[in-house]
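Our preliminary data section would be incomplete without showing what the modeling component actually yields. Below, a chain of 293 amino acids is followed by its predicted structure, encoded as tokens that our downstream tools consume directly.
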Amino acid sequence: MPTTIGFLTTLKEVHLRGNSLSGNIPSELSALKALQELDLNGNEYQGEIPGKILSTMTALESLDLGDCAFSGVIPNSFKLLTRLKSLVLHNNKLAGSIPSIIGTMKSLEVLDLDTNEFTFVPRSIGDLINLKTFSVTDNKIQGTIHTEFGQLINLVKFYISNNEFGFQIPSQLGQLTKLRDGFDVSNNQLIGTVPSELGALTGLRQFRITGNRIAGNLPESLSALSELRVLRVDKNDLTGEIPPKLCQSIDMNEATAYADCGEIACPCCSHCCEEAVCQCIFTDPLRCSRSRL
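Predicted structure:
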């Protein structure tokens, strides 16, 4: 990136996505005080994120540094980006704890930290009352799913799959009644039962708890999830049956349902799983190929 970009002091948007830019992000970028969007996704930047440079651009509303090779941590100086609505850092090599200062970034609506090496989510995450997307899939995050997530009442997407979260799904997640696009806690180390409070997520289209150690019966309250298009409860220790009313509300021409059919009765399942192998039970191969995962 040329240092002369610093002369464009009234610039509001910089989109340099998908190039082969490398080297240092020039300090002259900090002169762009009016900049609202900075997209450097899909370049070859390495090393630590230059927090001192980026945090001086206090008008930023969207920052996308995904698909690069940044390492280190999220800079604490990002707390100065009080207008930031979207922070995308997916597919880098960032590690350690997500800093507690993230809770001070009250304007955030999108936080995408997928495919890094983060190990911990702070409880201050519950202060992001405007957040609509929280996504930390494919990290190394341990600990519990904090009850503070229940404070994020504007969430539409909640994705925490492929981590090392343990203990139970907190009942407070039933307060996330605006969830629509997805509830995905798959492939963690969760135990206990599915809380009945999740039946309040009536607009949910995808419900995924596959690949944990969740046991017991699914609560009847899940029958209220009439908008479901993907139901994955396989590879757990569930017993009993899929709530019959839930099966009645699922349109199998549109939806996909997976379960361990040898352990839990599922008359509306499109796929039955045994020993980590899932097979489509439709006789029509076209319907199997159309099934949404």
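The first helix runs from residue 51 to 54. The radius of gyration is 21 Å. Preliminary results of this kind motivate Aim 1 of the renewal.
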